[in-house]
Design goal:
The complex is a heterodimer of chains A (about 400) and B (about 400). Chain A is an all-alpha fold. Chain A is about 70% helix and about 0% strand. Chain A is globular and about 60 Å long. Chain B has one domain: ABC transporter involved in vitamin B12 uptake, BtuC, CATH 1.10.3470. Classes of the chains: A mainly alpha (about 400), B mainly alpha (about 400).
Chain lengths: ~400, ~400
């Protein structure tokens, strides 16, 4: 278009023309607007939140008018939410704010999110290969019980982790045989896995520990102290003393992103989930890939469970310990659109909502209970397609018959 | 099972036209009752459960016998010469069974637990008939519970029959609406009903925990106890067998039996049921036949939810009378109903018997009924869950697939 009048492309102009950039900037500003009202900033007027929030909304409008409707609407919603939360925060007392929003909130968010991250990444592998895994909850529960049992009997958290993951793998293998070879309905099979895990862990918990606490002094998964960070003002309490499994979960997210999207193995897994017949035609062993993915999902979900009992829980177990965390992980995977980074972000969001629900008790103990519905409501909205459709792998849940 | 050897399952997914696994599921489970598979499933599950018992050093036969005694089902075989009070009157009449025996008390509990299982099983079964997997019976049951408790404990000075009727009707409608959300999402934007009903389950659990929990709007007058107020006497269903104070059997069991009949009539004798089944078999064909698929999805889910909401209402008005967050979070009734619907193959008769089996199993292993010298009730309760899991695992099995798999192995 050489005949068009040439406008000088400044970096700002370029940025303004890119709807993706404005959209994400708007979202970031919206979140920032909310944070302006709370520690460590604690500006005591809502003005700054209002200004930043309005900029976020303007970015959103710019994005909508340039065609990225749902990104823009998301930015507008974040901006409005940011202004609202920032305003609410300025209305609250500084003491309460300091109890709710401090550096350990970040550490707690990670602690709550980590079991979800493990299970959600596991579920993603299974579903990417074409097997729906409703049984994440059960696999996690098995990991939680047998992990702490292994640590108790074996005397080391390493043994516990290995035992938990092995039992998770066995349960996943049973499920895989039913779902893949016997082509049983996967939702039914997953429900059965959840029942079985609840019954088996409960049975042996009462048989071995009489339904009481696991004996004191079980070897627990250690925290990692970062000496050069733990002395710092804000970062120290936030990330200076996190559990080993939290760091492992960060690495797991990166590793699973690389495996799923950058390696031939990941391509095979995704091919089996999108079009198993085509995958079979080019020589991929669909059954083997699916078995591998389902067993891996069991191992990962169980690892999340071991963290829950032997890391986060400090070496305890109680009946039905996971209490729906497997389903939140499932929700995180769906909310994250079957992607490792998305699942991680969703798990962090859901972990944050759990962590903050605990802390909001200084305002109202009953209303903080209500905060627990957040993951489920958000996921329901996501599957309803209000904020962008989530797209499952095409052959997800469909048994494959080799010819 | 030979019709499942067709290649349908292998077709690549075409948008909206190829039958989904759910429809295959409806074919597999929606047809005429096949008696052998459920019986075989049950036997295998009990054998494997017995294996677990044996592994922990107990005699499985003695354990199962103790559980059976605890269920009170043996009451039917204890025929004699007795007299029984006619319910709701002072008159007595001759009766072949002893209505006051220990077995009778146990049987009351069994039937008490069977009632909600029947209804939540119908909630699953009805959605199955429309090719949908309603895993949200638990949430719909809880929503029914919430509304029944709310109306039962807050609306005073009503005519008793009107009051209990109000509780039950509103709770049923609430359950229908709750499930209807999933139905609408499926019909309009195609959101998978399994995901949406799971989410709705947990939303119901947490909202209920908030309402009845400490400081919640529906918490009872005693601030230290996180539970609702008990419902008024007028909102309680009449108890016709046993003592009201000791969880006697209310007439809710007859409502459940009536609903089995209603289910059969709707599915087999109405145009609505025909449309639902047609959509369940093949939505594309149903659409060509002039049936509104979207409407069927919504209506099927709403009716399913109504059954589950009714279950919650009957539990509240029949024996629970008050509810706390712990009850909501520990409840598994919706999932047991799922197991019963699978085992009962979505037929009215099958659901009835399967629900009785699970209701009896729960009662027989409860700490009130099971003889603790034979087997610890806490273990037995978990044994029940294991058996349920095994039943669901095996009943979801495509036996045709199993035979061909074994056959192929034999040939190789």
């Amino acid at each position: 278009m050489s005949w068009a009048p040439q406008t000088r492309q400044t970096p700002v102009g370029k940025w303004l023309r890119n709807p993706v950039a404005t959209g994400y900037t708007g979202m970031a500003l919206g979140v920032f607007a909310a944070f302006l009202g709370i520690p460590p900033f604690t500006s005591r007027t809502a003005t700054w939140s209002l200004i930043v929030g309005i900029i976020a909304i303007m970015c959103g409008i710019a994005t909508v008018t340039r065609g990225r409707k749902r990104l823009g609407l998301g930015a507008i919603a974040t901006g409005i939410g940011g202004i609202g939360l920032g305003y609410l925060a300025t209305r609250s007392s500084v003491d309460n704010l300091n109890i709710v929003f401090n550096a350990s909130l970040i550490a707690q968010t990670f602690a709550f999110a980590t079991p979800l991250v493990f299970a959600a990444i596991g579920g993603m592998f299974s579903e990417r290969s074409g097997v729906v895994n409703i049984g994440l909850e059960g696999m996690m529960l098995m990991g939680a019980f047998w992990g702490v049992w292994g640590a108790d009997v074996g005397g080391s958290w390493v043994v516990g982790l290995l035992v938990g993951m092995a039992i998770g793998a066995v349960l996943a293998l049973v499920y895989a045989v039913f779902a893949i070879h016997l082509r049983a309905d996967q939702i039914v099979g997953g429900t059965a896995v959840n029942f079985l895990a609840l019954g088996i862990t409960g049975y042996f918990f009462f048989q071995l520990y009489h339904g009481n606490y696991v004996s004191q002094g079980v070897s627990t998964i250690p925290n990692i102290k970062l000496p050069w960070i733990s002395g710092l003002h804000f970062l120290g309490p936030a990330i200076g003393n996190l559990n080993l499994m939290i760091w492992v979960s960060f690495m797991l997210v990166i590793a699973s992103y690389i495996v799923v999207f950058k390696t031939p193995i990941g391509l095979r897994i995704r091919a089996c989930g999108e079009h198993p017949r085509a995958a079979d035609t080019v020589g991929i062993n669909v059954y083997a890939v699916r078995y591998g993915a389902v067993v891996l999902s069991g191992v990962l979900a169980a690892a999340g469970g071991v963290y829950l009992s032997d890391g986060f829980g400090g070496g305890t177990f109680n009946d039905n310990m996971t209490a729906g965390r497997g389903f939140i992980a499932l929700a995180a995977m769906i909310f994250g659109n079957w992607r490792p980074a998305g699942a991680f972000a969703a798990a962090l969001l859901f972990g944050f909502s759990s962590a903050i629900a605990l802390r909001l008790q200084v305002y109202s103990p009953s209303a903080s209970t209500l905060f627990n519905v957040l993951p489920y409501v958000l996921t329901l909205i996501a599957v309803a397609g209000v904020i962008g459709r989530t797209v499952a792998p095409a052959a997800d849940g469909k048994p494959y018959r080799k010819q | 099972m030979s019709d499942f050897e067709t290649d349908e399952l292998d077709e690549e997914p075409r948008a909206g036209s190829a039958p989904t696994p759910q429809q295959h599921f409806a074919w597999r489970f929606g047809g005429a009752s096949d008696l052998l598979t459920p019986l075989l499933t049950t036997v295998v599950a009990f054998l494997m459960g017995g294996l677990v018992v044996a592994l922990t050093g107990k005699n499985p036969i003695r354990v199962y016998h103790a559980i059976f005694t605890g269920t009170g089902v043996g009451w039917f075989f204890q025929v004699g010469n007795h007299s029984a009070r006619i319910p709701f009157s002072a008159a007595h009449m001759w009766f072949p069974w002893d209505t006051g025996s220990a077995a009778a008390t146990n049987l009351q509990q069994t039937l008490l637990f069977t009632t909600p299982i029947v209804l939540t099983a119908l909630a699953v079964a009805f959605a199955f008939r429309c090719g949908m997997f309603n895993i949200g019976g638990q949430g719909q049951y809880i929503v029914g519970t919430i509304f029944a408790v709310w109306l039962g404990s807050s609306v005073a000075s009503l005519d008793p029959w009107l009051h209990v009727l109000l509780c039950i009707v509103v709770a049923t409608l609430a359950g229908a609406l709750w499930a209807g959300i999933a139905g609408i999402l499926k019909a309009t934007v195609g959101a998978h009903e399994v995901i949406s009903t799971i989410m709705l389950n947990w939303i119901a659990i947490w909202v209920g925990s908030y309402l009845f929990g400490a400081g919640g709007p529906l918490q009872g007058s005693r601030a230290a106890i996180p539970a609702s107020n008990p419902i008024f006497d007028g909102a309680k269903l009449p108890v016709f067998w046993g003592l009201k104070l000791l969880q006697g059997l209310s007439i809710g069991v007859f409502i459940a039996i009536a609903m089995l009949f209603v289910y059969w009539v709707i599915v087999n004798r109405t145009t609505l049921g025909f449309a639902v089944r047609a959509v369940g078999f093949n939505p594309e064909a149903a659409r060509y036949g002039g049936i509104s698929v979207a409407r069927s999805y919504f209506v099927a889910m709403a009716i399913a939810g109504a059954f589950a909401g009714l279950a919650g209402a009957i539990d509240v008005t029949g024996w629970e009378y008050q509810v706390g967050p712990a009850d909501l979070q520990a409840s598994q009734i919706g999932f047991i109903g799922l197991a019963a619907a699978l085992l009962g193959r979505n037929t009215a008769v099958g659901v009835g018997f399967a629900s009785l089996l699970f209701g009896a199993l729960i009662t027989g292993t409860s700490s009130r009924q099971l003889d603790p010298t034979v087997f610890r009730p806490d273990l037995a309760g978990n044994l029940t869950t294991i058996i349920q899991g095994l039943v669901v695992l095996f009943v979801g099995l495509n036996l045709g697939g199993l035979w061909t798999w074994l056959g192929r192995r034999r040939r190789v």
